[in-house]
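thought: fold this chain, then report.
action: predict
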Amino acid sequence: MCQIKTVMINELENRRKKLLNKLFITGGSFSLVFLFGVFKLVENPTISSRVTPLLFLFFIYIFVIFSLKFGIKNSFIKELNETIFEAIGIKDIKFSRDSRKLKKVVLNFSKSNSGFLITNDEFSGILSDVKFKICDGELWFGTVKFKGKIFNARLKKEFDSKVLITNLGIISAKNLEEIKLDSVKFSQNFKVFSSDLTKAFYILNPVFIERLESLVGDKKADILLYKDEILIILDNKIDSLEPNLFKKITSLDTQEFTDQIQSFEKLIKFLRLS
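observation:
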């Protein structure tokens, strides 16, 4: 993985400043218009009750300011992450603030009591000729604590059985049978379930386990192999896809994220070619 160069950081910082100036100038201009409207309304003697129109003006003001901030923030998220993704080597990058499709994939396999899943900032692209999606996710009000990343990739290769590797507890193991692997260390960290034990052992060979451990590290995760797809829910406690528009960019601490993408790439390469 290549490092983000100083020139790139400077370009992103300049872009951040331009977007911030746009927010302040546009927001400030609208604020002046709003104050002028309030002043004219207050001094107008023909209006008997000013409460309703003042409230109406106030709600319009709040709506416009928040919409402006939301739009500019989304532009910054898109530009910064596209820069990082391009540096990593991802092609055909697309961004969506909405991530309902990836959320739906998770909910199709999750336990009913896991919690209320919030997802946002979805990026899709092509990595090693494999289409993938990634988004931020967080669970609220449930039995499982989760804040991190959701990966999903279509591998162009059909799995003959469904395999679940879990120590996070979001994805349901319903109708799957638990299996024990030879690796004592891996078995201590994860539970493994499958719809076909023989075929599961074929997939869960030492190379796959090594690459999976490299991706997950000491964090909790659920990994599901099904049909021609892989779903990974990684609890890394980081909202790395959403930078702070109001914070100066002096460096980009992307090492953990790029390491995860690199490990994810190695894993899908192995699954696609094995």
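thought: worth noting. Strands lie at 91-96, 116-127, 130-140, 147-154, 163-166, 177-179, 191-194, 220-226, 229-235.
final: tokens above.
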